[in-house]
Amino acid sequence: MYVPHFNAVDESTARAMVEAYAAGEVITTGPDGYPLATLLPVLWQGDRVIAHMARANEHWRSIDPDTPVLVVVGGPQAYVSPSWYAAKAEHGKVVPTWNYSSVHLTGRATVHDDPEWVRGAVTDLTDRHESPRDEPWRVTDPPASYVDGMLKAIVGIEIHVERAEGKAKLSQNRSRDDQQGVVAGLGADDPVAEAMRENLE
After folding, report:
1. Contact 36, 62 (CB under 8 A)
2. I need a labelling partner for 112 at 20 to 30 A (CA). Which of 8, 51, 95, 166 fits?
C-alpha cells in the first residue's frame, strides 16, 4: 500500500478501523495465476483474522495451507471537488482528489473444514455484530440440528497476519481552511466528513 507519512495510521487505529468496517476483500492467486477475491465479514484477533466462506464458492478450494493472502478492509470514501478548497479563491491551483480510509492485512491463509472450528468462528463473528442489540441473537438460538446443517454449507478461513498497513487519506496535506471546506462540501452526514472533523479536532 502506498502510504504517505501524513496518511499513515498506527496499529491500534488500524485495528479500530477493521473492527468498525468489519468486512474485507480476501484476495489470493488462483491456479491460473489470476487473482481471486471474496468479500467476507472478518474479525482481527491478535495476530490472526478469522472469516468463513460458502462451501459453494470455489475460491476456498485454491487456498492451500499457508497460501499468501491480502485482506483489503475499506472504509468510507468520497470524491473531493477542488471547488471546496479555500485555496481555489486564493490562487486557483487546485485539482480533484479522492479521500478514503483502508487497511491492508497481508499474511498466509488456511482453510478450516472442522465443524467445531467453524462453529467457533461463526459464534465470534455473530457475537461481534449482535452485541449492540438489546436482545442479541445467538448461534445457540435455533435448533442444534439446523445450525449443524448450516455449518456444513461453509468453511472457515484463518489468516495469520504478517504485515498490517493502515491509511486514512483525509486531506491532511491541505491547509486547515481547505480541510474545513471539504467537510462543508461533503455535508454534515457524510462519513468521510465525520472522519475529517475528528482528525481536525
Report:
1. yes
2. 166
Parallel, antiparallel, or unpaired for β 35-41 and 48-54?
A: unpaired
Name every residue whose Cβ is closer than 8 Å to that of residue 189 and which is 6 or more positions away in sequence: none
Residue with cell 435455533: 142
Among 137, 122, 110, which Cα is nearest to 43's?
122
Cα(109)–Cα(54) distance, integer angstroms: 16
Q: Work out the number of other CB atoms within 10 angstroms of the CB of residue 115.
A: 12
> How far apart are the C-alpha atoms of 71 and 126, rounded to whole Å?
20
Strand partners, 102: 74, 167
**Orientation angle between helical segments 176-186 and 191-200, nearest 10 degrees:** 150
Residues 143, 1: Cα–Cα separation, whole Å: 45
Burial category of 63 from C-beta neighbours within 10 Å (exposed 0-12, middle 13-18, buried 19 and up): buried
Write down the residue that cell numbers 491500534 correspond to. 12
User: pLDDT tens for residues 40-94?
Assistant: 999 999 999 999 999 999 999 999 999 999 999 999 999 999 999 999 999 999 9
Chain centre distance of CA 104: 8
Write the pLDDT tens digit of every residue in 136-193.
999 999 999 999 999 999 999 999 999 999 999 999 999 999 999 999 999 989 999 9
How many other β-carbons are positioned within 10 Å of the β-carbon of residue 141?
10
